[in-house]
Amino acid sequence: MRRGYSIIRRNYRSSFGEVDIIAYDPSTETLVFVEVKHRKRNSLSSPLESITPSKVEKVRKTALQFLSETTAGYSSVRFDAISVVDGRVEEHVENAF
């Protein structure tokens, strides 16, 4: 929301999986599917390292399911990733996958 996005859905679930946040970026008329990963500060890996190819595929299939259920038109679609460490956003990667 700090970037001016409107949150459309949180924790959208389908038979394929879940998308943590679905948002709309009005500056680019883009629908944004966001994967949020959490870790503790002293974790051995970064949150974004835990996004596996399998998870990417589940998010993409879930996004397609969402798009099939909506009548709203969007200029484009994007997949972002947000890393959260100890409750604070550390990084927001646009076009993460």
* Helical stretch tally: 1
Q: Given this structure, which CATH class is correct?
A: Alpha Beta
The N- to C-terminal Cα distance equals 21 Å
**Secondary-structure-derived class:** alpha+beta
The backbone outline, from C-alpha atoms, is globular
Write down the CATH topology.
Trna Endonuclease, Chain: A, domain 1
What is the N-to-C order of secondary-structure elements (H for helix, E for strand)? Answer: EEEHEE
Assess the beta-strand content as a share of residues: 35-45%
Number of strands: 5
Major sheet: arrangement of strands: 1-2-3-4-5
Architecture (CATH level 2) name: 3-Layer(aba) Sandwich
Low-confidence stretches: none
Kindly state the percentage of residues in helix.
10-25%
- Taking Cα atoms only, what radius of gyration do you get, to the nearest Å? 13 Å
Quick one: biggest sheet? 5 strands, mixed
Q: What is the typical, i.e. mean, pLDDT?
A: 91
In total, the number of domains comes to 1
Walk me through what this model shows.
With 97 residues, the chain is an alpha+beta fold. It has a single domain, classed as Trna Endonuclease, Chain: A, domain 1. Helices cover 18% and strands 43% of the residues. It contains 1 helix and 5 strands, in the order E-E-E-H-E-E. The protein has one helix spanning 53-69; strands at residues 6-13, 18-25, 30-39, 76-85, 88-93. Strands 1-2-3-4-5 form a 5-stranded mixed β-sheet, with helices on one face. Strand 2 (18-25) and strand 3 form a beta hairpin. The radius of gyration is 13 Å and the shape is globular.
